[in-house]
Amino acid sequence: MFSKIDKDISRSQLIRYSILIYWSLFWLLNIIDKIIGGSHFLWVGRDRFAQFQKFFASAGLESPFIADFALSVAAALEGFAFVFFIGALFKLFKNKVEDCRSWFFIGISLTLATFTIFSIGDHIFGDRFELLEHTLFWFLTLFSWVVFNRLEHKSDEQAKVKDKRQFFGAAIVALVLIGITSLSIFNYNTDFFSRRTDALAAEQIGEDIYKVSFPFLGGSTVFEKSIRKFKKEHPSKMINHIYTVPKPLRLKKADGLIFYIVTEDRP
Amino acid sequence: MKEKTIIRFSILIYWTFFWGLSVIDKIIPDVHHLWVGKDFFALFIKFFGSLGLKDPLFATIALALISGLEVINFVFYLISFINFAKGKEAHTEKWFFRAILSSITLFGLFSIGDQVFGDRFQLLEHGLFWLILIASWALFKFISPSNNKGFSFGPKKGIQLALIVGVIITTASSISIIDFSNRTFSNVDSAVEGEEVVSGVYKFNFPFLADKIVWEKTINKFKTTHPDLKINYIYTGPSELNSKKKTHLLLYVFTDK
Questions:
Q1: Which one of B122, B198, B242 makes the best mutation probe of the A interface by having the most chain A beta carbons within 10 Å?
Q2: Are A83 and B158 within 8 A, CB to CB?
Q3: B41 CB near a chain A CB, below 8 Å?
Q4: N or C, which end of chain B has less CB nearby within 10 Å?
Q5: Residue B84: burial class (beta carbons within 10 Å; 0-12, 13-18, 19+)
Q6: Whose CA is closest to A249, among A241, A260, A261, A237?
Q7: What was the pLDDT predicted at A248?
Q8: Which of A162, A228, A174, A237 is nearest to A204 (CA)?
Q9: Is residue A91 within 8 Å of residue A106, measured between CB atoms?
Q10: Neighbour-count burial of A215, counting CB atoms closer than 10 A to its CB (0-12 exposed, 13-18 middle, 19+ buried)
Q11: Do B135 and A139 touch (CB under 8 A)?
Q12: Between A101, A220, A239, which is nearest B233 by CB?
């Protein structure tokens, strides 16, 4: 199967296709995220409006119009970058090398412009983590351009090695491992999914202090059920404080969320 | 314009702004209208305090030295950029190299500091910036002559179609953004509705736009709508409870009659 692909398309071409598909999907999904807006069934995405609104509000620009405008500019850059990457993909498919290169370059330039503008924003709004993220993407964009162009005229002579036995060996080992992994995952799901919903028992560790240790699967439903259970089992107690153990105090890496319920007797 | 020129322009503009804004961030301490920035003074004070050097003079001198190096970086990039704009290639390369050298020196110093102060995340951050600077220089300097090409977009129809599709996508995104903004902007100052999840315990799902004003309004509204209840505890749900990623903040209010 792989040798068939090798015959039809060179390895360099595959990498070039991968680069174009990556950036096309990258921007397409960003645009979809903006068009959908908010969380829905099968799409969580990121609430960019809230993020932009908070950024601008922190700089004293509270009007939602500013955030809307900035987001629209970002959407325009992303939209055009997507169109040019898709165009480059189409040209590559048609084997129009020079045209493909130019379309890809415009896509790369728009992507560089987008990340440069984002980085300027990160400086202004003081978000150093996003600055690192955007600088890395800026670098990946440049790197993609270099690799894409370097591979333009590479017609890699593929070694004609007979690897049928290795191929079948690899397939068997992979299938066995996939089987074992899947079995383990399905077993874990059968045995432990209830951790996502089951109430937890509170363990008394001192006078009027109870400990609740969460499994990793636990969420707000487990928390609420655990509190309900606690209140039911201790009707004479009144919860007056819940202390969440901060992460540095959870010494064991396997520790999930731990909280203590502090109570007093009902008057 | 040729590809090489545009790539070089992109690299120069990025790093010139990077260092220019870093310098401005040092000149404008604290938060102001149109500028938030990062409080490096507080960061340095904490770092030096953790070493046992509590006198603010140490942090001030260190920050002044760092800022001085950042100014040098910025000036080097700016001169390189000016030479680039004038088409003086040899001068551009010379100043760009100086700028890169001083920038990697600064990130080298930052990395030493990160090791001394034990901040591994910042060490990774500074290491990545250091690597990107070196890669920027390699790309700037060794851009292949084959990259110095003009453009060929193929038939005019293709580029016209691309522009039309781009405009349609931009318009659709903008309409959606404005619509979403109109629908959700009220979250900035609207009280959140609570849900009684356990007898006497109310849950509040705060949206992403909410801040302290929303919190205050929510509590006041809750007290007004439940005059018979006494709030005896408010619990902020830690991130582990918020596993669905859709909610910004979970708040539980424990009450009694």
A1: B198
A2: no
A3: no
A4: C
A5: buried
A6: A260
A7: 78
A8: A237
A9: no
A10: middle
A11: yes
A12: A239
Q: What is the pLDDT of residues B107-134, one digit of tens each?
A: 999 999 999 999 999 999 999 999 999 9
> CB–CB of A256 and B170 under 8 A?
no
Q: What DSSP string runs through A3-18?
A: HHHHHHS-HHHHHHHH
Q: Which two tokens stand for residue B203?
A: 């849950």
What per-residue confidence (pLDDT) applies to A196? Answer: 83
Q: Answer for the pair A138, B12: CB distance below 8 angstroms, yes or no.
A: no
Long-range contacts of B151-158 (CB under 8 A, 24+ apart): B151/A102, B151/A105, B151/A106, B152/A98, B152/A99, B152/A101, B152/A102, B153/A99, B153/A102, B153/A103, B154/A91, B154/A96, B154/A99, B158/A87, B158/A99
SS3 B58: helix
Q: Do B166 and A224 touch (CB under 8 A)?
A: no
- Chain A neighbors of B146, CB-CB under 8 A: 149
Give the residue from B10, B171, B156 showing the smallest Cα distance to A108.
B10
CB < 8 Å & 24+ apart, contacts of B38-43: B38/A126, B38/A128, B39/A126, B40/B66
For A121, the token pair is 């924003």
List the single best residue of A104, A214, A227, A231 to mutate versus B (max B Cβ within 10 A): A227
CA atoms of A241 and B254, how far apart (whole Å): 9
Name the token pair of B207. 């949206």
**Are A250 and A258 spatial neighbours (Cβ–Cβ below 8 Å)?**
yes
Q: Please state the ipTM of this predicted complex.
A: 0.89
SS3 B99: helix
Nearest residue of chain B to residue A141 (CA atoms) = B7
Element (H, E) at B207: none
| Interface test mutation site (partner B, options A54, A86, A94, A102, max chain B beta carbons within 10 A) | A102
CA dist A36 and B183 (Å) reads: 13
Q: How many CB pairs under 8 A join A and B?
A: 217
**Which of A50, A79, A218 minimises the CB distance to B166?**
A79
pLDDT at res. B145: 65
E strands along A207-257, which residues? 209-213, 237-244
pLDDT, tens digit (0-9, with 9 covering 90-100), for B32-77: 899 999 999 999 999 999 999 989 999 999 999 999 999 999 999 9
Find residue B249's DSSP bridge partners: B206
Q: With a cut of 60, say whether residue A8 has pLDDT above it.
A: no
**Closest A-chain CA to B14:** A116
